[in-house]
Design a protein that fits this description.
Strand order of the largest sheet: 1-2
Distance between the termini: 77 Å
Radius of gyration: 20 Å
Number of helices: 6
Helix content: over 70%
Order of helices and strands: HHHHHEEH
Number of strands: 2
Structural class: mainly alpha
Largest sheet: 2 strands, antiparallel
Strand content: under 5%
């Protein structure tokens, strides 16, 4: 009984810390001019397409458990309901990044990357701590794998944004060389 109360207190403490961190970042404001996010018309159209592709991918992946055997459904446990959401989120983010519609126009990308790095590392550390009990608990995948997936997704997003920036810089440098020639 005592362990259950301590566990609940620890979870509440972690949630309170995360809420505090979110409030801090909101108060710090990662936008350059202190205004709300702004997207131009082209970005809004690309974000709309990203939402559409994310919706369809979530629906398709969400229907896959219908075709899975009961043993795999049992193994996945509650993760079965989160996987389609993560896939849809990833599809939306990846589409928007490659179409220059993910980051707002007035966003300080260094602060954003720092906060995203912090969130990714926090999720990875939480998952590593929770996975010490193992990947399987009573024959069901440990839900700490969700934190691991979110942490990995965050790292992939950061890498993808850095790659996109590098490609854009190279393309811009090539265009400048063509104009000089």
């Amino acid at each position: 009984m005592g362990l259950d109360i301590i566990w609940v207190i620890m979870i509440l403490a972690v949630v309170a810390i995360m809420v505090g961190i979110c409030i801090f970042f909101y108060a710090k404001n990662i936008h350059n001019d202190g205004k709300k996010a702004k997207y131009d018309e082209r970005q809004m159209v690309a974000r709309g397409r990203g939402y559409k592709y994310a919706f369809y991918s979530t629906i398709i992946v969400g229907m896959l458990p219908i075709f899975l055997p009961d043993e795999i459904k049992f193994l996945l446990g509650n993760l079965m309901y989160c996987i389609p959401l993560l896939v849809g989120l990833a599809v939306h983010i990846f589409y928007c990044i490659w179409n220059d519609a993910y980051l707002e126009l007035n966003l300080d990308s260094k602060r954003w990357m720092t906060s995203m790095s912090f969130i990714s590392v926090a999720n990875l550390l939480i998952s590593l701590g929770s996975l010490q009990r193992g990947f399987l608990i009573d024959g069901v995948l440990n839900t700490a794998l969700l934190n691991l997936a979110i942490g990995i997704l965050g790292v992939v997003i950061i890498i993808e944004i850095l790659m996109k920036k590098s490609i854009d810089k190279k393309k811009e440098a090539d265009e400048d060389e063509e104009l000089e020639a």
